[in-house]
Every structure is written in structure tokens, then in C-alpha cells.
Design a protein that fits this description.
Blueprint (H helix, E strand, L loop, with lengths): L4 E6 L5 E7 L6 H8 L5 E7 L2 H15 L3 E7 L8 H13 L7 E6 L1 H13 L6 E5 L2 H7 L4 E6 L2 E8 L4 E5 L8 H18 L1 H10 L6 H18 L15 H11 L6 H19 L4 H13 L12 H10 L10 E6 L2 E5 L4 H11 L3
Parallel strand pairs: 2-9, 3-4, 3-5, 5-6, 6-9
Antiparallel strand pairs: 1-2, 7-8, 10-11
The protein binds nicotinamide-adenine-dinucleotide (NAD) and glycine.
Glycine binds next to loops.
């Protein structure tokens, strides 16, 4: 079994997020909370209807045994829970349970719970500390790190939100054992994205390891290190560096929105976005075609979609793309690869090229 790995994420003004990755480390959560400092012993524990019975009871018990008052809150599993109404409901449950500004919130679950509960923590009494316990690959390698929280509206994904850095992130790979294969595989879209934008050697590692669920600690830690380094450089996405993490997401979010929540998992929509972005990188930059094929083959190895279903609504995808927040003032800022591991923001990709890339996803 791998030793736990600690990755500190240092931010301006002496702020810090402590990220711990390990196998079977949730039992030591009280110790980690105590070491974090500034957290009183009263917390909301927010989870979803799938994760609560698998891991929630145990985490609540561990905390209660250590003297914590725990207010459990469960939301329906699935992307539809990422709504303003649900965030308000979490806050109201916390108020009714008597939690106040001295309390903190723990988000236990995948990216949906992390984004939603993190947002509730950001707005509850103008902000209380948040601890993330991610239980999916997406959440461990991506959404729990970096402080982006938020909810969706009918107009698009993540359009309401706040930056709210977690004080502590505890990623226990043991929780991933209960992930169904489809949810396990979807997480690799974000892993392959990290490899594509920052670390060609990571792609090789994924290609060699295949779908192995063994010894995930170093793999998750490498991804966290990549994301943490980007966030340290550009916490608020103002210099263009953090925007590189959006590789594959412009078209991916369009597809996710158009499909309607529930049809495609987040990672599955991102997989299609990565295919399109890899092809555009060949067309508008210097990515060798063979490397675009490597990205596509890696996605296929995780059973991720690389072609749009014939029943997908092309017009709805294009409409959703136009509404996307990255198309500010009609200007398209699109993340491309110069080479594997080397991403940049381009302004050369025009809307007709994006439309063409979506069309190509339907196949010949
Ligand atoms: P999710 O949270 O919906 O989890 C996927 C499914 O797995 C759900 O049904 C969930 O109940 C279940 N699940 C979670 N953990 C489990 C476990 N250990 N065992 C069994 N089942 C489990 O989806 P996700 O893919 O984790 O996250 C997607 C969301 O994350 C999207 O809303 C996306 O926008 C967001 N996201 C945010 C960021 C960010 O920076 N904030 C980054 C990437 C993705
Ligand atoms: N997932 C994109 C970001 O955190 O910036």
C-alpha cells in the first residue's frame, strides 16, 4: 500500500489548502481537522443519496466519536442537484439545525456535491470554512482542488458560483472501490486532459497501466500536483494559465448542456470535447496527428465516447456553445495544444471551425 502524500496548495495572502491523498486515510479525519486549525467542532456533512449509505454514516460516526456535532444533509445524486434551489435548501437546513458562522461544512462525494456544498459554504453567513472529501476520480483529481464552486442554471453550467478554497482536502482512494465502472472511467477524461495540457509522461503511464484500480495514490497525487501548480499560478483565472484546464471543456460543456443532465456523465461529455479540441490542435496549431490519435485512443481505452450518437441534436449543441461564458463579446478563446503537455490559449479558432469540429464528432 502506498504511503499517503501531502500536497500543500499555497495562495496569496498566506492562505493555504492542505491536500492529502492516501489509501484508507478517512479514519484519521479528526486528526487532520485538528491539525488544520480554526475549525470548531460543529459541521454540516453534505453528501448525496448514493454516497451517504456507502461512506457517509462511517464518516459521521468517526467525527461523532471524536466529539464533533454533525448535521447530516443528503441531496439527490446527479447533476440536477447542482442548482441554486438546492444550495438554498442546504443553507436553510443548516440554519434550522442551529449552525452558525463558527461552524464549517464538509462536502463528501463527487464533483456535484463538492461544487454545490462548496458553494453553500461560500454563501452561508457570508462564508464558512469548507473541507472537501472527494469520492470520485473527477473530484479527487480536479473538482475538489482549486476552490471553484457553483451551480448550474437552465442557461448553462457553472454560471453562478464563487471561488471558495477548501481549507482541507482528504482524498481517500479506498472510497473509489465502490464507484461503478462507468463513473470510474469518466474520471479519466480529466486525467487525460491533465496529461494533454501538462505532462506527456502521464499519458504514457495511463497507456501502460490501463484501467488498473491498483495503487491509485501516486496517479491521483500526480494529477493533484498538476492542478495545484496551475491554481497557485493563477487562482482566479485572470492570466490565462488556469484557463488551460478548460482544454476540451468548451465543446464538452456545450454537448453536456444540449444532452440534458443525466444522459451523459460529465466526463463523457468532456471526452467528446477533448476529441474535438485535439483535432482542432492539429488544424490550428502544431500538434502532430499521431498525438491527437493517442489522446483519442486513451479515451477509448476507458470506454469513453469519442463520437456523437446520431440522435444527438447538433443545433442544440451549437446553441449551447454560443451561450457559453467563454464566448465573451463574440471573441472565442480556445485552448489548443502545441504538443502533448504544452497547451496555450488561441484566438485563431473561429466559430465555423468549432461548428465543423462538432460535425466531425458525428463521424463520416
Ligand atoms: P457526480 O458527483 O455526479 O458523481 C458521479 C456519480 O457517482 C453520482 O451518481 C454519485 O452519487 C456517485 N458516486 C460518487 N462517489 C461515489 C462512490 N465513492 N461510490 C459510489 N458512487 C459514487 O459526478 P463527478 O463526475 O464526480 O463530478 C462532475 C461534476 O464536477 C460536474 O458538475 C462538473 O461540472 C464538476 N466539476 C467541477 C470542477 C471544479 O473545478 N470545481 C472540475 C471538474 C468537474
Ligand atoms: N476545472 C477547471 C478549473 O478548476 O479551473
Amino acid at each position: 500500500m502506498s504511503d499517503p502524500i501531502h500536497i500543500p496548495l499555497n495562495l496569496a495572502g498566506g492562505r493555504r489548502s492542505d491536500i492529502h491523498i492516501g489509501d484508507g486515510i478517512l479514519g484519521r479525519l479528526p486528526e487532520r481537522l485538528a491539525a488544520t486549525g480554526g475549525l470548531r467542532k460543529r459541521a454540516a456533512l453534505v453528501s448525496d443519496t448514493n454516497v451517504w449509505p456507502l461512506h457517509g454514516e462511517r464518516v459521521a460516526e468517526t467525527l461523532r466519536e471524536a466529539g464533533y456535532e454533525v448535521v447530516p444533509i443528503s441531496v439527490p445524486a446527479g447533476e440536477e442537484s447542482k442548482s441554486m434551489e438546492r444550495a438554498t435548501d442546504i443553507c436553510r437546513q443548516m440554519l434550522r439545525a442551529g449552525l452558525d458562522r463558527q461552524s464549517f461544512l464538509i462536502a463528501l462525494g463527487g464533483g456535484v456535491v463538492g461544487d454545490l456544498a462548496g458553494f453553500a459554504a461560500a454563501i452561508f453567513q457570508r462564508g464558512i470554512p469548507c473541507v472537501q472529501i472527494p469520492t470520485t476520480i473527477v473530484a479527487q483529481v480536479d473538482s475538489s482542488v482549486g476552490g471553484k464552486t457553483g451551480v448550474n442554471t437552465p442557461e448553462g453550467k457553472n454560471l453562478l458560483g464563487a471561488f471558495h478554497q477548501p481549507r482541507l482536502v482528504v482524498a481517500d482512494v479506498a472510497t473509489l472501490q465502490t464507484l461503478p465502472d462507468r463513473e470510474y472511467n469518466e474520471g479519466f477524461a480529466e486525467v487525460i486532459k491533465h496529461a494533454a495540457i501538462r505532462d506527456a509522461a502521464l499519458l504514457e503511464r495511463i497507456e501502460t497501466r490501463g484501467k488498473s484500480r491498483e495503487n491509485l495514490v501516486p496517479l491521483i497525487a500526480r494529477n493533484v500536483a498538476i492542478k495545484a501548480a496551475v491554481v497557485e499560478e493563477d487562482e482566479r483565472e485572470t492570466t490565462g494559465i488556469r484557463a488551460l484546464l478548460n482544454f476540451g471543456h468548451t465543446i464538452g460543456h456545450g454537448i453536456e448542456n444540449a444532452a440534458g443532465y443525466g444522459r451523459l456523465l460529465h466526463g463523457e461529455a468532456i471526452s467528446l470535447g477533448l476529441v474535438a479540441a485535439a483535432r482542432l490542435s492539429v488544424e490550428f496549431s502544431t500538434l502532430p496527428e499521431a498525438d491527437a490519435h493517442r489522446i483519442i485512443a486513451a479515451l477509448e481505452a476507458f470506454d469513453l465516447p469519442t463520437r456523437l450518437d446520431a440522435s444527438s441534436d447538433r443545433e442544440a449543441i451549437l446553441k449551447a456553445l454560443l451561450r457559453d461564458k467563454k464566448f465573451e463579446e463574440g471573441k472565442v478563446r480556445f485552448v489548443l495544444l502545441r504538443a502533448l503537455g504544452d497547451a496555450f490559449v488561441s484566438e485563431d479558432v473561429d466559430l465555423p471551425a468549432i461548428h465543423e469540429a462538432v460535425q466531425t464528432l458525428f463521424g463520416p
